[in-house]
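Thread amino acids onto this structure.
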């Protein structure tokens, strides 16, 4: 029997069960078949001793690995999982890592009390960073200093770090060109957060100078290829409620109201549509709205959102595959993905009185 206050060991279980320690180990690992009688004796002894199983820390030391891959997300984790894009991406990432028997540890990129992000001392074998804001770049530097394999999804990770990239700029320009061809000249923009501070409000040159979130900047650059002077407001996160706030900011003043709004996510676009409806505006008759992502969104009624469909699941799968490659000692690779434009029923030509005069 084990001494009071001491954690029972596998050797204790083997002694009570009357088997060798290696036989008891086989029962818990499940890798080799043993007789049902032997298996039951070991399990009964474990129950008697209140033995919960092999110490994962000891197993980790023997293997030289923790069996855990960290996923570093920006902002609040509960908000991340309200976004269907993140959910699909994480599902496929998990599937890809299942082949190497790795679990996931979700971390924020916020610094802790001593100024270091949680990844600084997390017991992990590799890291996936989603996006590459200023805080994520700091986390990446720590990851590289620790010598951990890393993959970045949608962000400039610098030389030597595999990336899963998306044609954010060109895809955003495609949506903007569609709206331009419909005849819209007075357009408002709703963007994702510019940096880790996630402040709402109008985008100014000063705010752009300080911006650090690549996805936001790339999508904004695509929009402004077509509408260089379009007013833009930032949201704090990709949430419908944030889209409502941004939509109110752009649409409340009839004298300055745009005839179309381009949003950097579908959830933000749905929020803009709700804000328009609050103000008594019809979509698309009074204002056209387009998004970015191609997700299934509730609350649109008979509408299908005009958007670009991004391969969210592929981003996760490919990131997981690169992690598996690097854990196997192979170099990771950067992979570039593209979006597909999908015209819906939320965009249409502006009202006759809002159309530009013919030249």
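Threaded sequence (359 positions):
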């Amino acid at each position: 029997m084990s001494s009071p206050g001491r954690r029972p060991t596998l050797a204790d279980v083997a002694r009570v069960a009357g088997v060798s320690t290696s036989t008891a180990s086989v029962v818990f690992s499940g890798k080799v078949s043993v007789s049902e009688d032997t298996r039951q004796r070991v399990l009964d002894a474990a129950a008697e001793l209140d033995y919960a199983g092999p110490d994962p820390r000891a197993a980790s030391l023997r293997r030289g690995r923790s069996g855990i891959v960290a996923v570093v997300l920006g902002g609040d984790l509960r908000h991340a999982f309200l976004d269907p894009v993140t959910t699909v991406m994480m599902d496929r990432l998990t599937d890809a890592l299942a082949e190497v028997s790795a679990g996931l540890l979700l971390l924020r990129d916020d610094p802790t009390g001593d100024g270091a992000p949680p990844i600084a001392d997390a017991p992990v074998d590799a890291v996936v960073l989603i996006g590459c804001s200023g805080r994520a770049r700091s986390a990446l530097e720590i990851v590289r200093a620790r010598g951990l394999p890393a993959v970045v999804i949608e962000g400039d990770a610098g030389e030597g770090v595999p990336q899963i990239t998306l044609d954010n700029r060109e895809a955003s320009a495609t949506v903007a060109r569609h709206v331009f061809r419909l005849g819209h000249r007075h357009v408002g923009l709703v963007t994702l957060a510019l940096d880790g501070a996630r402040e709402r409000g109008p985008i100014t040159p000063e705010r752009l100078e300080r911006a650090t979130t690549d996805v936001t900047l790339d999508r904004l650059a695509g929009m402004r290829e077509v509408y260089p002077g379009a007013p833009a407001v930032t949201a704090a996160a990709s949430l419908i409620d944030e889209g409502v706030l941004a939509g109110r900011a752009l649409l409340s003043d009839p004298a300055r109201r745009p005839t179309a709004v381009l949003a950097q996510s579908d959830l933000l676009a749905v929020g803009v549509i709700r804000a328009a409806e609050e103000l008594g505006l019809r979509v698309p008759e009074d204002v056209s709205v387009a998004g970015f992502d191609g997700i299934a969104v509730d609350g649109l009624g008979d509408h299908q959102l005009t958007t670009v469909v991004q391969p969210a699941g592929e981003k996760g799968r490919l990131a997981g595959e690169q992690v598996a490659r690097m854990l196997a000692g192979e170099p990771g690779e950067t992979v570039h993905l593209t979006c597909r434009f999908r015209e819906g029923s939320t965009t249409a030509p502006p009202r006759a009185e809002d159309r530009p005069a013919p030249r």
